[in-house]
Design goal:
GO molecular function: RNA binding; RNA-DNA hybrid ribonuclease activity
Protein name: Rhizoctonia solani AG1-IB WGS project CAOJ00000000 data, isolate 7/3/14, contig 22384
Order of helices and strands: HEHEHHHHEEEEEEEEEHHE
Strand order of the largest sheet: 6-5-4-3-7
Enzyme class: hydrolase
Distance between the termini: 46 Å
Keywords: Hydrolase, RNA-binding
CATH architecture of the largest domain: 2-Layer Sandwich
Number of strands: 12
Strand content: 15-25%
EC number: 3.1.26.4
Number of domains: 3
Number of helices: 8
CATH superfamily of the largest domain: Ribonuclease H-like superfamily/Ribonuclease H
């Protein structure tokens, strides 16, 4: 990546002050950050699921894909030969924000097309300087106009506020996205990164970046009916000092080389905090297993219960409590 940067960017344009990219490992790694620090370049990374941060690159990539799709052959093995032409056409397009093409902005002239007639007039240095100053002034004024025109964020949150998070780009274990919840949470804001980005306190089971654009957040309002508040139940503290939570039910399962595991829904918690637990561990909770067998008669049972008559145990009110683990939520599941 560093060699590409030097070959394609630095030799033509010098050292930039900042770069904008997504959080992919190609751009966001220890070597790249150390290199940029030595060169005095400040890397700016987009927030989770907000491609508008680097919207120009996103739109350019879409345009390039469309161009290559139109011109490459059926086998799609000649796409690389079309890249120089695609790059030329892209740089010669007029940008809607600046009103100028990339060529005109950088070089103050449009490149000559092969089929265009030769222009024998050569502008004088003074005229060229004035033309360059005029173009830069026009570009600067156009950019400032579009910045003022952009709609500023209408909402603002404080540290400690609870918010809903849009789940459009978040993978869950439910079979179809169309019937899934549109929002998750509420989650607490723990840090304000900027006017457009906030850091949320997410469950350990959500293995995603915890900084989100403000467009993905909405204010959470407590249910004030009958002075009722939605509060997650605290864990039970055992004599050994361990935390235990109440199991609500089994919602799905997974069988692999490590054996049978159940996806557990914890009482008072939503699906984002489900965890995968060993079936043998859940088999020790007779009330939970009874409900599971009634809801899913064909559902798999742990080896300890197969071909064995289940003995009744006298409940103590603690049979449905156990410690919560944080195993992989995103492994393939069998959902009834």
């Amino acid at each position: 990546m560093a060699e590409i940067f030097i070959r394609e960017v630095w030799k033509l344009h010098g050292t930039p002050m900042t770069t904008v990219s997504d959080r992919g490992r190609v751009f966001n790694n220890e070597f790249q950050r150390a290199l940029f620090e030595k060169l005095g370049i400040k890397p700016l990374y987009s927030t989770a699921y907000h491609p508008e941060t680097d919207g120009l690159s996103e739109r350019t990539n879409q345009w390039l894909e469309g161009f290559l799709r139109s011109y490459c052959n059926y086998a799609q093995d000649d796409w690389a030969t079309w890249l120089p032409i695609a790059e030329f056409c892209c740089n010669n397009q007029v940008n809607s924000s600046t009103g100028k093409s990339a060529f005109e902005t950088v070089y103050s002239i449009h490149p000559r097309w092969t089929i265009a007639p030769i222009n024998s007039k050569v502008p004088h240095a003074e005229d060229m300087t004035k033309e360059m100053e005029k173009i830069w002034d026009e570009v600067k004024a156009s950019i400032e106009f579009h910045k003022r025109k952009e709609e500023a964020p209408k909402k603002e949150f404080k540290v400690g506020d609870k918010v809903w998070l849009v789940t459009t780009n978040i993978q869950t274990k439910r079979p179809t996205k169309k019937l899934d919840n549109k929002k998750a949470g509420p989650f607490t804001i723990v840090e304000k990164i900027s006017s457009h980005a906030y850091r949320l306190e997410l469950p350990a089971t959500m293995r995603i970046h915890n900084v989100f654009h403000i467009n993905l957040l909405s204010a959470f309002k407590e249910d004030t009916d009958f002075h009722r508040k939605q509060v997650k139940p605290p864990p039970i503290i055992t004599e050994e000092g361990e935390e235990e939570y109440e199991v609500d039910k089994i919602v799905a399962w997974r069988e692999d080389k490590d054996g049978l595991r159940y996806q557990i829904r914890w009482k008072g918690y939503d699906e984002l905090e489900d965890t995968m637990e060993r079936a043998e561990k859940i088999a020790e909770l007779p009330e939970v297993m009874e409900v599971f067998k009634k809801e899913f008669p064909e559902g798999p049972l742990p080896a300890t219960l197969k071909n064995k008559k289940k003995k009744k145990k006298k409940g103590t009110g603690r049979l449905a409590y156990m410690s919560m683990s944080h195993s992989n939520r995103y492994a393939p599941l069998q959902v009834p």
